[in-house]
From TrEMBL:
The lineage of its organism: Bacteria, Pseudomonadati, Pseudomonadota, Alphaproteobacteria, Hyphomicrobiales. It comes from the Bacteria. It comes from Acuticoccus sediminis. This is Uncharacterized protein.
Length: 97
């Protein structure tokens, strides 16, 4: 599965297609604070991008694709700001606990 859902973090890996958008939306909707790790994503479908833009989760690791970084600019800027003043720091191992 291209997106692994942990307790507090969604890890995007490989190709995240349109079929991943609804499970991601539902997962994000159930959480007040959520983290999304895009570092392992090779491709992210626009449906998934739209979910991220709408939900505005904290991006714990930015995508490798510079264009995707540009598209996700507002969400990434908020995440960078949160990283400068983090209330909590999660790692994938902690998020799975």
């Amino acid at each position: 599965m291209p997106i692994r859902f942990l307790n507090a973090m969604a890890l995007c890996e490989g190709d995240c297609g349109a079929d991943e958008a609804e499970p991601l939306r539902a997962w994000l909707a159930r959480r007040r604070t959520s983290l999304v790790d895009l570092a392992g994503a090779d491709h992210v479908h626009t449906a998934v991008v739209q979910v991220i833009l709408a939900a505005r989760p904290i991006i714990s690791s930015e995508p490798k694709d510079p264009f995707l970084c540009e598209v996700l600019g507002p969400v990434l800027e908020t995440s960078r700001s949160a990283a400068r003043h983090p209330p909590l720091k999660f790692t994938p191992k902690q998020a799975a606990a």
